[in-house]
Amino acid sequence: MTPQELRAFCLSFNAAEEDFPFSPEISVFKVRGKLFALSFLDARPLKVNLKCDPDEAVRLRREHEGLIVPGWHMNKRHWNTVTADGSLPDRLVRELVEDSYDLVVAGLPRADRLRLDRP
């Protein structure tokens, strides 16, 4: 997955926005103001922090040792850092980004979730 593909995929979700609150080099992807992905898109290898169910996070880290690790500068229980440089299947990286988005949306207030469902 290229940085451009990662950015485009993150922005393809309903109400997703890119922001740079930490520095101009760190892309933060949000839905309704809540972070679901964070990446230094110019870094090599390309990595992205993604929210994850805690039990699933442990399983993924075990199955993909060194490629999926506890989230860098994040709550290690709920966030993973995923290497997105082609070492993992792009399909898996996309699923993890989508899962992160879905987890964040599920935690939004009901009114915000309802606004996301509107065309």
From TrEMBL:
Provide this UniProt record's keywords sorted from A to Z.
DNA-binding
GO MF entries: DNA binding
PANTHER family given for it?
CYTOPLASMIC PROTEIN (PTHR35145:SF1), CYTOPLASMIC PROTEIN-RELATED (PTHR35145)
Protein name (record)? MmcQ/YjbR family DNA-binding protein
Q: What is the lineage of its organism?
A: Bacteria, Bacillati, Actinomycetota, Actinomycetes, Kitasatosporales
